[in-house]
Design a protein that fits this description.
Blueprint lengths: L1 H15 L9 H7 L5 E2 L2 H9 L4 E6 L8 H15 L3 E6 L20 H17 L10 E3 L2 H4 L4 H7 L6 H5 L2 H7 L7 H4 L1 H16 L3 E5 L3 H15 L4 E5 L12 E2 L2 E2 L9 H9 L3 H11 L4 H13 L5 H15 L1 H14 L10 H8 L4 E3 L6 H8 L5 H9 L3 E3 L2 E2 L17 E6 L3 E6 L1
Parallel strand pairs: 2-3, 2-5, 3-4, 5-6, 9-13
Antiparallel strand pairs: 1-6, 7-8, 10-11, 10-12, 12-13
């Protein structure tokens, strides 16, 4: 029944999504939301978006077992075009995932075929959650391994490779960066742009696909496809490059200590996900609302006013965190994250939290290993709340130590079975805001 409920909620989330009819064209809305960094002919694209339904695509390579926030930008762009009546293809690259597009600094580690195949399945499931599978423009999932696997190296070089000029390929940003690095670039990664261009050609042939979207750092790969279609088929195709989302200080968005904010709840808990959005800076939050939510222009402009006049209320951040966490993880997970945030600081009942929300919250805290019979002062030392047992005893004597939001009164207090929430977790607090988790 839980699975059925999740499917129904996902359908309700999709059904509630709308483009904003206060804009004259979809292109106008995409520009206002900051979703267009670079594109092929703007006038032709705007006309195409307002015309008859057409097929478009974005590719996602299985170089990890989950999509991340950078991919979410593309999924939401695909969804906005689908809401306009156009027909999305979600490509998960079973072949390009075996190679990986060039990174700026070093060669990728190649994953096994079995691993890539498993990740293809996982990413296809994620892509399908953000796009409607109903109606005449239902999303269709495709895998580029289907058309590259039967192709021999000789056929590939004769039929596709002959259309690419090495001088042009060398000028692509990702390639140029690697050529100037100590690592250099292998022929494997150098050839990636040909494979992506071939994908667009095949999708044009099979589905009449006319548009590809991707991050602006993929622009060279996107135009490889439009150029190939022009050379081979004599037809015009289009590309949209979305901006790389950065914070106001210029740092890359979606990264924390080098780790992406993943869409898979096992890799990034709903609590961690919620907190990420809640902690967006005032300088960034309005841009995030534009890109990552379906709130209308009027609603977002009202939040912009609130940020300017009452920033201390953090109303925009709270709405952003609620909207995006609900979009990705569902309303129950979003509410669980909110409840956990409140309960950690004594404004709610920790014992009432579901295990997933509690585990996610504790995962963000300094932690100590312990269980029934563990001395609270020792746990405080182990978790870094105090530097010594003596300091821990003094903190207890001063009335500033709590286990699961209940004040500790005895210096020799140990954890009892009833302190272990869901049989294995406890929360220590010193003062109002210094927290640590205990995991048995």
């Amino acid at each position: 029944m839980a699975g059925v409920s999740a499917v129904n909620e996902r359908a309700e989330i999709l059904a509630a999504q709308r483009n904003d009819d206060s804009f004259e064209t979809l292109w106008d809305e995409l520009e206002w939301r900051g979703l267009i960094h670079v594109s092929t002919d703007q006038g032709a694209l705007s006309e195409l978006l307002e015309g008859e339904p057409f097929t478009y695509y974005c590719g996602f390579d299985p170089t990890a077992p989950s999509l991340h926030l950078g991919n979410l930008v593309q999924l939401l762009l695909l969804r906005r075009l689908q809401l306009k009546g156009h027909k999305p293809l979600g490509l998960v690259g079973g072949s390009t995932g075996l190679i990986g597009d060039p990174r700026p600094t070093a060669e990728r580690t190649l994953n096994s075929r079995d691993t890539v195949a498993e990740w293809v399945t996982r990413l296809q499931g994620q892509v399908s959650r953000f796009l409607s599978s109903e109606g005449d423009n239902a999303v269709r999932l495709v895998n580029n391994l289907d058309w590259t696997a039967p192709l021999s190296a000789i056929d590939f070089l004769r039929e596709i490779g002959k259309h690419f000029r090495v001088g042009t390929m060398l000028k692509k940003d990702a390639v140029a960066a690697r050529l100037n690095s100590e690592e250099g670039i292998s022929y494997t990664e150098f050839s990636y742009q040909i494979l992506q261009g071939y994908d667009f050609l095949e999708l044009y042939r099979q589905y009449g696909c006319l548009l590809q979207s991707g991050g602006s750092d993929q622009w060279g790969n996107l135009t490889s496809g439009t150029d190939l279609i022009r050379k081979v088929e004599g037809r015009s195709a289009h590309a949209i490059g979305t901006p790389l989302i950065t914070n106001a200080d210029g740092t890359k968005f979606g990264k924390s200590e080098g780790n992406a904010i993943w869409l898979d709840p096992e890799m990034c808990s709903p609590y961690t996900f919620y907190q990420f959005w809640l902690n967006q800076a005032d300088a960034d939050v309005i841009a995030r609302l534009k890109v990552f939510t379906f709130l209308s222009r009027a609603e977002i402009e009202d939040y912009e006013r609130q940020v300017a006049e009452e920033p201390f209320k953090r109303a925009a951040q709270k709405r952003l965190a609620l909207e995006v966490t609900t979009l990705v993880h569902g309303s129950a997970a979003a509410q669980g994250a909110i409840d956990a945030s409140e309960a950690l600081f004594g404004r709610g009942d920790l014992a009432a939290l579901d295990e997933v929300s509690l585990r996610g919250a504790i995962g963000e805290l300094p932690r100590a290993a312990g269980g029934e019979g563990s001395l609270v002062t020792q746990l405080m030392v182990d978790a870094g709340l105090v530097k010594s047992l003596g300091e821990g005893r003094r903190a207890i004597a001063q009335g500033g130590v709590y286990v699961n939001n209940v004040a500790v009164e005895a210096e020799d207090r140990v954890l009892g079975a009833s302190d272990l929430l869901h049989g294995r977790y406890a929360v220590l607090r010193r003062g109002k805001k210094t927290l640590a988790g205990v995991t048995a």
